[in-house]
Amino acid sequence: MKKPQLRLAPSILGADFAHLAESIAQLQKGGADLLHIDVMDGVFVPNLTIGPPVVASLAKTAALPLDCHLMVSNPTLLVPLFAKAGAEMITVHAESTDHLDRLLQLVKEQGVKCGVSINPATPLESIEWVLDQVDLVLVMSVNPGFGGQKILPYCLEKVRRLRAMKPELDIQIDGGVKLENIAEAVEAGATNIVVGSAIFETGDVENETRKFVKILYLPKLILPM
To answer: Catalytic residue numbers?
Structure first.
């Protein structure tokens, strides 16, 4: 059984968009593994962020794989656009569609990695039958829409249960992860850690990224199997 790899996926949601290229360069120097892109349409969640043209620009300049998290009400329309723009991973929400299996197949047809996400109050049973179809499950540990929220503790239990259900799964956690709780998230079973405001709010993106990477790869952080 192959063990999932620990990875740090900083979210650009908390970045200064006037200096986005500079911030991404600092993330790369700090040792980030992925670039997490929160796509919000102002309908599925109460915020509006970026679209395919920005992702296309990032694909030309960023050395990190682009991990696009679609928090949108019409994912069927947008999945092909983000794949064409250069996303290497597209994660869609189980709550955004009545036909999750069909939506996941659409993502896979684009030739990109496929992820499924669930909001904090959404039960794991809603995705139980599609776990074999995805490369990653994203467990939202805050209610989506805005950065800077505190992690909801019960979401760590969801990660534990999901790890027990499918030990080889790549599990991403998104929301409220900070230096003081990243170890707890990994010990619960998360392998793919999204960090946003905790990296950008200090103003020293490269150094703060290094701090997260250092903790993430401590030998004591052994993934439960």
So the answer is: 38, 174
